[in-house]
């Protein structure tokens, strides 16, 4: 597989991941962190890092908007629930693996 095709396929898979996460706002970031070691904010940070490496201007807020499909503060107001004691405990236990 050539690099251009690989990049196109990876981009398509990434867009599908974002669409899936946007369709599942009930899945909280803390749950993603506890289970997978990354969350939507991590994806936004990775997107910004990639832009910075390539000299593409992209602010933290712009990268979050691309990942969340809306401004981050709006997403938090609409979808972010208060973390339960169990979620916080799981986060503390899983933190060393991140």
UniProtKB/TrEMBL annotation:
InterPro entries cross-referenced by the UniProt entry: SMc04008-like_domain (IPR023163), SMc04008-like_sf (IPR036810)
Limits of the SMc04008-like domain: 27-92
Protein name per UniProt: DUF1244 domain-containing protein
The organism's taxonomic lineage, starting at the top: Bacteria, Pseudomonadati, Pseudomonadota, Alphaproteobacteria, Hyphomicrobiales
């Amino acid at each position: 597989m050539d690099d251009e095709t690989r990049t196109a396929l990876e981009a398509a898979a990434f867009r599908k991941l974002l669409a899936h996460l946007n369709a599942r706002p009930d899945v909280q970031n803390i749950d993603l962190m506890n289970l997978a070691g990354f969350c939507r904010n991590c994806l936004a940070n990775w997107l910004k890092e990639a832009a910075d490496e390539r000299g593409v201007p992209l602010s933290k807020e712009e990268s979050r908007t691309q990942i969340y499909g809306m401004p981050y503060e709006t997403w938090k107001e609409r979808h972010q629930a208060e973390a339960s004691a169990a979620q916080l405990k799981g986060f503390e236990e899983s933190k060393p693996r991140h």
